[in-house]
Amino acid sequence: MPELPEVETVVRSVAAHLTGRRILESKFTSKFVTPGSRTKLAQRLLGRRIESVKRRGKFIVMALDEGTLTVHLGMTGKLLVKGQTNEHTHGIFTLDDGMLLYHDPRQFGRIEWSGGESPRVKRLGPEPLEISLEEFQVRLKRPTRIKALLLNQAFLAGLGNIYADESLFAAGIHPLTPANKLTAARAEKLYRAIQGILTHAIQLGGSSISDYVNAEGERGWFQMEHRAYGREGEPCVNCGKPIRKILVAQRGTHYCPHCQKK
User: Fold this and answer.
1) pLDDT digit string (tens) for 194-211?
2) Do 64 and 49 meet the contact criterion of CB atoms below 8 Å apart?
């Protein structure tokens, strides 16, 4: 699933093409991506002007001159300003200058209109790159395994499996450590790791693990720098011992049992 760096990369690559554009027509073909009346959705978007395109957590939020269009890419969703339609194209936006396509083979993504802020966006926690260290430390005070807590979008918005694993590895923290057992020093180390890794991943265009690309169809490069995620059985870059994989919060979790301590 595209996480904060990937979604931020998509937003940056698509914003210049969409901001100020008017939607002349839209077509939707998936009852999963666009639940409810697809005809009504197209009518609501007809003639609307896109005022801005921003990211909130893993959501792409387009402020219109009337209402808000929110896109979640799910597992395999793509927003493209270049390319051709195919059997996986479930959203076509014809603009007054150009076109926007939404591809999603597995159809786990969502395209939704709301009169104001999306209800799902309202439930999100703080942004990892904006939260203060003090607030981060306060929010850690709960007896939840740290990996599970990092995946909780009400705790922080935008972190997912990749960047939770990478941040915990960088901070030397075992994924099963109770969050409220972290010392102030270890909490700060995790905070710095999260912000540093997310910032660097954005600079590299995110991680292209499967079919993720930006709006121009370009792959990211941060997957070349993964130190934990996806490296089960490979030697740890720090100590040389094998990276292990366990299940935490129903998600595959990669860590070094020697370098990451509870």
Assistant:
1) 999 999 999 998 887 767
2) yes
* In the predicted structure, residue 104 carries a pLDDT above the cut 90: yes
Do 155 and 101 belong together in one domain? no
Predicted TM-score of the model (pTM): 0.93
Residue pair 54/11 in contact by the 8 Å Cβ criterion: yes
Contact criterion met (CB below 8 Å) for 178 and 145: yes
211-227 pLDDT, tens per residue? Answer: 777 677 777 778 888 99
Which residues does 107 contact at the CB level (< 8 Å), separation at least 6? 30, 32, 33, 74, 90
Contact between 69 and 11 under an 8 Å Cβ cutoff? The reply is no
CB-based contact 138:149 (threshold 8 Å)? no
Closest Cα to residue 140, out of 125, 118, 162? 125
Q: Are residues 109 and 196 in the same domain?
A: no
Residues 229/165, Cβ–Cβ less than 8 Å: yes
User: Is residue 107's pLDDT more than 80?
Assistant: yes
Active site residues: 2-3, 58, 251
Q: Of the candidates 122, 153, 170, which is a domain's last residue?
A: 122
Cα–Cα distance list, 23 to 43, 137, 215 (Å): 11, 44, 18
Q: Are 168 and 126 in contact (CB under 8 A)?
A: no
Q: Which residues neighbour 138 within 8 Å (Cβ) at sequence distance 6 or greater?
A: none
Domain that holds residue 168: 133-255
Query: In this structure, are 138 and 222 located in the same domain?
Result: yes
